[in-house]
Amino acid sequence: MNYTFDFNAVSLRPLIEGLVVTLELTVAANLIGVVLGFPLALLLMSRIVVIRWPATLFVEFFRCTPAIVQIVWFFYCVPMLFNVFLGSMTMGILALGLNLMAFNAEAYRAAIQAVPREQIDAGIALGLNPLQRVVYIVLPNALRASVPVLLTNGIVIFQQSALVAIVAVQDLMYQAKTLATETYRPIETFTIAALIYFAVSFPVAQVVGWLERRRQVLTS
Amino acid sequence: MTSASAPLVSIRALHKSYGPHIQVLKGLDIEMKPGERVVVIGPSGGGKSTLLRVVMGLEKIDSGSVTFGGRPYISSAGAGAKTVIDTEVRRSIGMVFQHYTLFPHLSVVQNLVLAPCKVRGEKKASAVRRAEALLERFGLAAKANAYPAQLSGGQKQRVAIARALMLDPKLMLFDEVTSALDPELVAEVEQVILQLAGQDMPMMIVTHDMWFAKNIASRVIFCAGGVVVEDGPPEQVLGAPREERTREFIDRVFHIKQ
Ligand SMILES: Nc1ncnc2c1ncn2[C@@H]1O[C@H](COP(=O)(O)OP(=O)(O)OP(=O)(O)O)[C@@H](O)[C@H]1O
Ligand SMILES: [Mg+2]
C-alpha cells in the first residue's frame, strides 16, 4: 500500500461539534429510556392481559427489528401517518429513546423478577404490607441489579445513534462522512471518529465490568 | 381451661398441595403449648419447610385451620377455596430462613429497624437503640453499620434472628437456619437460639442437626409423607422411638453424622 497518512488534513472542530450532538442524542434517549422504561416494565408484568399484551408487543417490536429500520420508519412514516412534522433531531431522539425504553423495560423486568423469593418472604414475615414490600425490598434490590444493564444499553444507544446520520441529524457520524468527502481523507477521518466513539464507550464499559464484579461479590 | 394449658398454636386437619399433583401435607394435627420448643424432623421432601411456611402465613392451604393463642389465624374451606389469613396474628410470629434472609441493600441496623419503623410506626431513634442493644447481646455490636455482604454466614443468621426479635414475636420459626453454614459457624448460631430458649421463647425448629435437636427441644415431631408419624418428648422420639419409620430415620441420620 502506498498511502501517506495525513491526520492534519482532518480538522477536529466539526467532529467535536458532531460529538456534542451525539451526546445530546444519547442523554435525551437515555432520559426517555431510563425513566419511561420502568413504568413499561410494570405494564409488562401486569396480570391484566389487555395491559400486558400491548406492552409486550411494543417491546418485542423494538427488540426484533433493526434499529436502522426503526429510525427510517419513524422518519418517513410518522409525518405521513400522524401528520406531525418534527425536526430531525427530535425524531432521532424519539426513535432512539423508544428503542432504549423497550430494552430498558426488559432489563427492569428481569431485575424485578430476579429478586429472590426469600427476600419477599422475609418481608412478609416481618409484617410489611404488599406496598411496603415493593417499595423497601423489591425496588431497591431490583434497581441496583439493573444498573449495569442500563449502562450497557446506554452505551449501545450511544453507538447506535450513529445511525441517525442517515436521516440528516448532524451527529458525529454525519460530520465524519461530510468531512471525509470534503477532504478525500476517509481513512483518517473515520479512524478519528472511531477513536472518539471508543474514548467515550470504553470507560463506561469498564465501569459496567467493575459494577458487575462487585455485585457478584456482594450477592454471593 | 386455664391460659397456661391453652394451646399457643393449634393446627387442625391441615392439607396443603402445590398444584394438582404435589400433595405435601395430608391432614396434619399439631397442638403446641405456650413455652414449648417443638423440633420438627423428617426426611427430605417430607413437608417440614412447608409446615413452617404455612404457620408463618406464607402459603395458601387446601383445607384445615390454624389458630394462634385461641384466635382463628388461618383457614380454608377446601381445595380451590380462598385461604383466609389474619395478618394481625401473622405479625406476632417471626421466622428465620435458610438463605438470602437479609436485605442486601440495607446495613445491619437498617435491616433491624425497617419493620419496627414501617410496620409499627416506632420512632427511628428508639428502634435504633433497641437494635443496638440486641446486637450487643448477640455479639454483633461491631457490625451494626456493616452490610450483609460483609458478614460471615453465621453473622448473617444471627442478624436475621435479631431482626425477627425486634418485633417481639410470640412464636419463632427456624427453618434449617444452620444447614447452609460452614461447620465451624454452626455453633454460634445455635448458641443464640439456645439463649432464646433460656428465655422461654416458644419456637418451632426444623433441623437436621441431632445434637442441636436434643439440646433445644422440649418436644420432637417426626414428620414424613405429609403426616405426623411420631410426636413426643426428645428422649422418646430421638432416643427410643416407638415407630419403625422414626427408628429407621434416626438410625440413618446418626449413621451419616458419625
Ligand atoms: N413452591 C413449591 N412448588 C412446588 N413444589 C414444592 C414447592 N415447595 C416445596 N415443594 C415440594 O413439596 C415437597 C415438600 O417440600 P418441603 O420443602 O416442605 O420439604 P422439607 O421436609 O422441608 O424437605 P428438606 O428437608 O429437603 O428441606 C417436596 O416434594 C417439594 O419438592
Ligand atoms: Mg426444608
Helical segment count of chain A:
8
CATH-assigned fold name of the largest domain in chain B? Rossmann fold
Largest interface, C-beta within 8 A: A-B, 20 and 29 residues
In total, the number of domains of chain B comes to 2
CATH architecture of chain A: Orthogonal Bundle
Number of strands of chain B: 11
Mean pLDDT of chain B: 90
Widest sheet, order of strands of chain B:
7-8-9-3-10-11
Helix content estimate of chain A: over 70%
- Helical residue percent band of chain B: 25-40%
Q: Which class of secondary structure composition applies to the elements of chain A?
A: mainly alpha
The gyration radius over C-alpha positions of chain A equals 21 Å
Whole-number total of structural domains of chain A: 1
Main location (chain A): membrane
Domain ABC transmembrane type-1 (chain A): 19-208
Function (chain A): Part of the binding-protein-dependent transport system for glutamine; probably responsible for the translocation of the substrate across the membrane.
Keywords (chain A): Amino-acid transport, Cell membrane, Membrane, Transmembrane, Transmembrane helix, Transport
Question: How is this structure best described in words?
Answer:
The complex is a heterodimer of chains A (220) and B (258). Chain A has one domain (10-219): MetI-like (MetI-like fold, Orthogonal Bundle). Chain A has 8 helices and no strands. Chain A has helices spanning 12-44, 49-63, 67-82, 88-113, 117-125, 130-160, 172-183, 186-219. In chain A, helix 5 packs antiparallel against helix 6 (130-160) and helix 6 (130-160) runs antiparallel to helix 8 (186-219). Chain B folds into 2 domains: 1-92 and 170-258, Rossmann fold, CATH 3.40.50.300; 102-168, no CATH class. Chain B has 9 helices and 11 strands. Chain B has a 6-stranded mixed β-sheet, with helices on both faces. A 5-stranded antiparallel β-sheet of chain B has the order 2-1-4-5-6. In chain B, helix 3 (108-120) packs across helix 4, helix 3 packs parallel to helix 5 and helix 5 (153-165) packs parallel to helix 6 (183-198). Chain B is globular, with a radius of gyration of 18 Å. The chains are: A mainly alpha (220), B alpha/beta (258). The A-B interface holds A 116, 118-119, 121-122, 124-129, 132, 136-137, 140-141, 144, 217-219 and B 53, 56-58, 87, 90-91, 93-95, 97, 99-106, 114-115, 118-119, 147, 149, 160, 163-164, 167. Bound molecules: adenosine-5'-triphosphate and magnesium ion (MG). Adenosine-5'-triphosphate binds next to strand 2 and helix 1 of chain B. Magnesium ion binds at residues 48-49, 175-176 of chain B.
